[in-house]
What does this fold into?
Amino acid sequence: MAKKNPKNQAGSNTIAVNRKARHDFFIEDRLEAGLVLEGWEVKSLRDGRAQLSESYVLLRNGEAWLFGAHVTPLPTASTHIHPDPSRTRKLLLQRSEINRLIGAVERKGYTLVPLSLYWKRGKAKLEIGLAKGKKEFDKRAVDKERDWQRERGRILKNA
It folds into this structure.
């Protein structure tokens, strides 16, 4: 019997997660968007070489764009191209979704934050969160609640 490849296990289709987004923002809504990628970027994503930590999404001229996402090129990338690891990438969304996002961002003061990058049916997808920024006291309250839940679990386990 052959050994199972660890990349083929459940949950392994996640490429990158922006953990800082959940710490800095209240996530109100989530959307799934496709990405316009070049060939070398797809190969790098398959190898798991992506970072979303300092990235953000902007809406310009009725289109969504991903800024600041870093995709490290493989050393075996083609010699006739010069890969730009942090280039601006276009996001693929339905017109109705873009219109709804434009309304939320411009009128209601929300921001668009990339949450995770993953594979779905062989295509790279980006999960976008419609978010409001947290204040410092909000972050402290969340940390305090998390610590209390952990402590409560310990007390109940030992009692």
Q: What stands out?
A: Residues 44 and 73 are 6 Å apart (CA to CA). Confidence is low (pLDDT under 50) at residues 1-10. The radius of gyration is 19 Å. The chain has four helices and nine strands.
